[in-house]
């Protein structure tokens, strides 16, 4: 008969606890940005040039296309992105960062990285890099997995501190 493990050794408990701490940190750092963490993910994806159209961006981030429209409306109203007709398909809209969007993203990336480094303080620099790499590999391994945006939203919408059995 095996000995019951402590809750701290349960992967689900540990991932949930770290994810909730990260979401709380991100919401604090990203306060004032339209869409909060989702808005940040939009800016970061657009800055990387992936994907370029509004619909492709919604698919990549796992955001309903109508929700993406409203989110982009808010981000555009702040002067952080522009939407232009796609030369290859006039029905599609390309999303591009403005200079103000680039500057805001730079500022937010720095603040978020500082907050993440504080959160990851128990780990050494090499361990932090390894953790980031491993999580990125897990997050991108299966295209059927929910996006980081959807996971963050699910956590925000209903997770509690109590792990499920």
From TrEMBL:
Gene3D superfamilies: Winged helix-like DNA-binding domain superfamily/Winged helix DNA-binding domain
PROSITE patterns associated with the record: HTH_MARR_2
BP GO annotations: response to stress
Location of region: Disordered: 142-165
Keyword DNA-binding (UniProt): yes
Protein name according to UniProt: DNA-binding MarR family transcriptional regulator
SMART domains: HTH_MARR
Pfam families: MarR_2 (PF12802)
Molecular-function annotations in GO: DNA binding; DNA-binding transcription factor activity
Residues covered by the HTH marR-type domain: 8-140
UniProt keyword terms in alphabetical order: DNA-binding
Organism superkingdom: Bacteria
Keyword Transferase: no
